[in-house]
Amino acid sequence: MAEEFHSSQPIYLQIMERVCQQIVRKELAPGAKLPSVREMALTFGVNPNTIQRTYQELERMEVVLVKRGQGTFVTEDTAKLMNLKRDMQRQIIQSYVNHLRELGFSNEEMKQGLSQFLKEDHDD
Amino acid sequence: MIEFHKVNKKYGFNHVLKDISFTIHPGKIIGLVGPNGSGKSTILKLISGLTYPSSGDVNVLGELANRRIASKVIYLTEADSFYPSFTVKDMLNFYESQFADFDQEKAIELLHFMKLNDSMKIRSLSKGNRGRLKLVLALARKAPILLLDEPFSGLDPMVRDSLVQGLLSFIDFEKQTVLMATHEIEEVEPVLDELIMIENGSYLGQYHVETIREEKGLSIKEWMKEKYKG
């Protein structure tokens, strides 16, 4: 079935993000083979050239590697996987901080808010 | 490869295409968009050699488009031309007799994919299933150029979805180029590589859809609205 996308962002980026999430969650383990371009195109209901672009970008980020004639695989390099995880965390923190800054929160308030939230969330 | 070079088309005093030039590279899915009456179908007819330019050249796969191009171009018109008393199977056999590149095996695979029964009579098919059958007949051919004229018009979302999946599953991207005229852009924007925009017979431009999303942060539909307003 075709997946839904935000229509105002490049689709190749949105699919990249989903693949990265799967890698960080270990749904795609280190060394695992990614589906073929055609399979991915069908899963997401998008043009195969878009998936090609996604895979190229992931390869450029060194998150996956292409083995000639065999397919595309998640890297087994733990340092690179850690980097990916940290980058994704950073992005989320960045957007958290940006949103609160827009509302006029100070750094101290942000930290307090976050630890308060985590405490309550933990108590549940 | 499809090339339009300064193409004009007049029907009497009606100037339907004005000085149109563009190039389509192979292995892509291109959307041909524009309001009704802007000349989309005329462009498809020129490529399939069903009509000729009043001036300028239409080159398809390195030769001037004429009726002989029919063996290399699949043209799915907006209207269907089925014989109501035929069964689906008869229709397949008819196509096989008309087109040397028609692949029966692939056609049968496509019928399964589209959940069509080959013993059904054309007249008993729903509108959605007629739309599916049209695409089956088109995709069962191996010709390198596939022209689709409003393949989704009047069909419900379920049918559209199955047509899109059919396109993605059965097009040979190494060898086939698809040009589809449509105004239902939302349905197809995830499968398009490029857009060719026309308005009132004039060429507005050719755009890579991911670049539009990336550079403008707009959906193709929003962006088109802006384009056509300006």
Radius of gyration of chain A: 18 Å
- State the helical fraction of chain B: 25-40%
**Count of extended strands of chain B:** 10
How many strand units of chain A? 2
From the alpha carbons, calculate the radius of gyration of chain B and give it in angstroms: 18 Å
Low-confidence sequence ranges of chain A? none
Low-confidence segments of chain B: none
Counting H and I runs of at least 4 residues, what is the number of helices of chain A? Answer: 5
Return the CATH class of chain B.
Answer: Alpha Beta
| Euclidean distance between termini CA atoms of chain A | 36 Å
Oligomeric state, counting identical vs distinct chains: heterodimer
- State the CATH topology of the largest domain in chain A: Arc Repressor Mutant, subunit A
Outline of chain B, from the CA principal axes?
globular
Organism (chain A): Cytobacillus stercorigallinarum
InterPro entries (chain A): Tscrpt_reg_HTH_GntR, WH-like_DNA-bd_sf, WH_DNA-bd_sf
Keywords (chain A): DNA-binding, Transcription, Transcription regulation
Protein name (chain A): GntR family transcriptional regulator
